[in-house]
Amino acid sequence: MPTAGMGIILHPDGEPNLLTWADRPASAVVGKWSSNASFVVVSPKWVLTVRHQNTNPATVNINAVTYNCIYNPLWIGGPAGNADIRLVRLKNSDGSDPNLVYAPLYTSTNEVNRDICLGGYGKYRGNTLSLNGKDYGYAWAGTIGILRWGQNKIDAYTDVNSSPYYSEALRADFDLDGETYEAAPALYDSGGGWFINQGGVWKVAALSSNVQRSGATWFDDPNTTEEIDADNFYGIRISSYVAWINEIIAADCPVGDLDDDCDVDAFDLAILAEQWLRADCLTVSPILCDGADFQANGKVNFADFAIFAQNWLIE
Q1: pTM of the model
Q2: Residue 176 and residue 224 share a domain
């Protein structure tokens, strides 16, 4: 089973100079998620990330600006509810809507053999690993906090079954297949983007999710006799979930809508009252206390009521 929870490991030329390397997405479309992952901005108000990092920060920071995170159980898991993907709504600190730089979704289903640029806030390339005088990979080093970019090529469509999540996915490997900055994800890159340049626009085609092994990335397994046996890695395939994503973003229901009718009214207030002062919203069904835990901190309290009140009677 692939390992979840993943920086960008580059081979063989090390890290590109991001000040001079222009053929990549804007840095503002990838952010740091809490202390253990990354995310991608996919609309002026919405970000995508994965679920397995299991963190729900109250805020995120993009280009030194802090945004509040809003959560809803309807925005988790794709249409079947079990995929390793989630949408999160952002608000400015004053409660107004942001207008973020974003990467459009790659909606085509022709991802295989496409060149990608991948970015994330994870670990980086550490010591070279060798056996009997032959180099075969790199250890991971460092901590979360610095955005890194690299390149690769998508090899196949696949799926990732990493309990309790089952996701449609894309696969790539670390085999130095003609890319200048050949790269693979590492720890804390989960939720970072795989981007395809379509007509001069960088669009997000996948979210980094799983790698073959933890603690290192191998470009040639020393334990096999194959000429090249490189590590695989995986990303949640955006085209498989694009209808679900677009439906949520297009509806743009106001925060506080708990009965999924895009109004904030007495019916929603009744749901909030039913969940009032619960403190088990992350562990007991219905998850997020039926959506009343807007901050996904496990509690329904006055902070959630304040968010609800901001949108009272909005349709």
Answers
A1: 0.91
A2: yes
